[in-house]
Amino acid sequence: MTTDPVLTLAQWLSPAFPVGAFTYSHGLEAAFQAGWISDGASLSDWLRDLVAFGSGQADARFVAAAWHSNLPAEEIDAIARAFAASAERLLEAEAQGRAFAQVVGAVWGGDLAGLSYPVALGHAAAREGLPLDLTLRMFLQAFLSNLVSAAQRLGPIGQTEAQAIIRDLAPLCAQTAEAAMDGDLSQVNSAAFLSDIAAMRHETQYSRIFRS
């Protein structure tokens, strides 16, 4: 492998890439306020469930389905949107997808308009010839990294502890990526219910710093 695929994915999934990921907590803000997450250990457990059973593994399947083009893009996107458990989760997927499509279209070319974030990423990776296994692993690590960064602003999670959480969950990212490789949407599921409830509760939370 040349360095090109690695560097392209590192750029797309970097915090510097302008998709606005720093503005979303994926329900973490409500979970901290409710006391469901209070320290590094409870955050790690929460994120582990998200990647193994919740939106992390579901979105990985949408990335893979788009990469394989198993179905028309609009159909994959409709299923991805249906799996958004709340209005804010849908906003998150739509807004990040729109921002990603605009920048990738302007710099790399191609039209990804109208696609939610995981579907847009999968299509863009396939068009650029980026390997799916690497795309999925780096996508899941970026997903975790964004949420850990949000958690640092919400609770007593230090930088060293935050990095240890990301490192410790790296094998799970690899396992989840491998399971999602076929992009079979008949196997898509999500069972991290408390995370979904937190996302719903955030919609009516009075004082907040994140959009989701």
Please explain how this structure is put together.
The protein is an all-alpha fold and 212 residues long. It has one domain: Urease accessory protein UreF, CATH 1.10.4190.10. The longest helix has 23 residues. The mean pLDDT is 95.
Q: What is the overall shape? A: globular
Q: Could you name the CATH topology?
A: Urease accessory protein UreF
Structural class determined from secondary elements: mainly alpha
**What number is the mean pLDDT?**
95
- Stretches where pLDDT falls below 50 for ≥5 residues? none
The tally of beta strands, per DSSP, is: 0
DSSP strand (E) fraction? under 5%
Largest sheet: none
Could you tell me how far the N terminus lies from the C terminus, measured between alpha carbons in angstroms?
Answer: 37 Å
What is the CATH top level name? Mainly Alpha
Helix content: 55-70%
List the domain count as a whole number.
Answer: 1
CATH A-level architecture:
Orthogonal Bundle
Backbone CA Rg: 16 Å
Give a brief description.
This protein is mainly alpha-helical and 212 residues long. The protein is built from eleven helices and no strands.
Which terms summarize this structure?
mainly alpha, 11 helices, 212 residues, single chain, Urease accessory protein UreF
